[in-house]
Amino acid sequence: MRDMQKQYYTVNELMGILPLGRNTVYKLVGKDDFPKIKIGNKILIPVAGLNNFLQEHQYGTIELN
Question: Mapped to the 3 state alphabet, what secondary structure does the chain carry?
Answer without folding.
Answer: CCCCCCCEEEHHHHHHHCCCCHHHHHHHHCCCCCCCEEECCEEEEEHHHHHHHHHHCCCCCCCCC
